[in-house]
Amino acid sequence: MKRPSTFLYSVLSFGFAFLYIPIFVVMTYSFNDSRLATVWGGFSTRWYSALLDNDQILDAALLSLQVALISATVATVLGTLAGLALNRMGKFRGRTVFTGMIAAPLVMPEVITGLSLLLLFVSLQELTGWPASRGANTITIAHITFSMAYVAVIVQSRLAGMDNSLEEAAMDLGGRPFAVTRDITLPLIAPAMASGWLLAFTLSLDDLVIASFTSGAGASTLPMVIFSKVKLGVTPEVNALATLVIALVAIGVAVAGWLMFRQQRLDSPAAK
Fold first, then answer.
1. Distance between CA atoms of 38 and 196, rounded to whole angstroms?
2. Considering the domain 58-231, what is its CATH architecture?
3. Which pTM value belongs to this model?
């Protein structure tokens, strides 16, 4: 095998530098003593204390976590049912329309999705009186609407590549469809459901456009608060918040990598 050329190493190094140097710069300036985010004024951790005393950011972070947890859980349930229907129910009336409705949020611009949901909530308010106001509930419903499509695609892909012999054997032995789904199918697709939940949770935390359309007064998610602050100029508090988020993500990735490495060692022939 030919060794990679110097050019390939250079391109790879440039790519990693382009991705990670800005992140390290943000982390470094989170310890800046100056009020100006781009002027170094000495080492200090005072912006972390200021961040913890900022009720606006803390309330927005709590709201984002609540919305993400609820929307990811509901989206996983609905997306799993949609994936099962598309893969296990064969050809049924309206399958093409149903498939298109599942795939539409994946390719629809977020501005169009947010605007359509806003018009929906306004129309429902005029016709039925619900919702009384836009806030956490409308944001959660909006996030469920688009994130369940991602879960459905992941679960459907897992079901398409899964061996059906175990389910068929269980039914041959007298298992009812519900029991087979509960005891055989769901455990087999559990990794896909977990992946879908994590993806839905991440998309909900990261969403700005749809939440901006479907939120109301007093209901601002963390991305909305950060965006409003960035428009007026990046402050060291935002750098400190970004550093905490990066640290949490890095810890999660490290734990996941350690668990995968541990599982590979347990599954290796040498361990057996």
1. 38
2. Orthogonal Bundle (1.10)
3. 0.87
